[in-house]
Write the structure tokens for this entry.
Amino acid sequence: MTKPNRQYFLFILFLSAFLLMPFNSADALRASNEESPNTSLLKELNFLSGGFGVNIKANGIDDELTVSPVTPVSLTVSVETDIQGGDPVDWFLFVETESGIYTFLPSGLWESGLKLSLRSPLFSLLEYEVFNTTFEEGRYKFTFSIDNNGDGIYDGTTNDSVEVNVRSSSNEEGDSYEEDDSYDKASVIILNDTEPQSHNFHDYGDEDWVMFYGVAGQIYTIEVSNPGSYCDPVIELYDSDSMTMLHQEDRRWYGEDESLDRTIEKDGIYYVKISHAYPDNFGENTEYELSVYNPRGAEAGFIQGEVTDSVTGEPIAMAILKTDMDVTAISLPNGYYLMSHPEGTFTITVEADGYKTLTDTVEVCAFCTVTKDFSMESIF
């Protein structure tokens, strides 16, 4: 076995220094007030066709990452090469901050300016964790680069970069259903609606809650569609007590649709929570659309209307409407309800806390909308 040379051990020392240095905030990068090189020197990933390639990731992501100041950032580097050892090559690891560019040196310090980090022979690395720490608010662009000309000058021939945006809140506005971050603020979602609800994760740890009325023995499909490139949704279904989780679905990755199917065991209100698999990812490109279906085979129309108090005329929210086909709806805060329903003549029942139950008939035609209002009498 060939004995490793001195440069190899020097590079191991270089990597180990990352783990030992007190890298607790961006302040560790601001070691001097020297002028920094033009940031246009930073280039995008470019693998050489024959020889070696490099990769850098933040929290497993090789694109822009958004995190909060309390979320650790794990930076990893990889080297793919057919060459082990040989002549020394130039290694660079530097970061662009809002105050300039800083290069990491084997001494364990960040030094202002873009400089050579190390000269060492090539060898392979697989997702070596350089550090895992939190940062102050700001933007950081980390670049890992190797070139084989050995002149000590960065030319960006083979490099990879990852951007980390640290912020406690985003510039992205919350969706129209906010504030819906808990079950008691859940919005009503219309079953089988042709227009899905539009949501986003606008802030750190943002959650979106909705509710629907489920009927025992019926299958309900909860679907998250058209997620943004930084949206990795998790679907959770909760029982009527809002505390007992019945099912969780998180099989997909960033930008991929997610869905959950569940047969309901008893009549009642059920809650759906949509959260981000990585709550520190929020803001731009975290939008998604949400729908809940109770699939019906027959051609459908719609029943709509208002539920109001018979004396005051005030709208009644949270009234439960159910037909003898087990199609349900919940009235909104303004008393409005909408349900998708197969065609035909049916009985519809309306219940609300503090009011006498109402029963009436409704005739539904395919591909049309029927209006049916209900005026409820108080039991007091």
The CA atoms of residues 222 and 292 lie 4 Å apart.
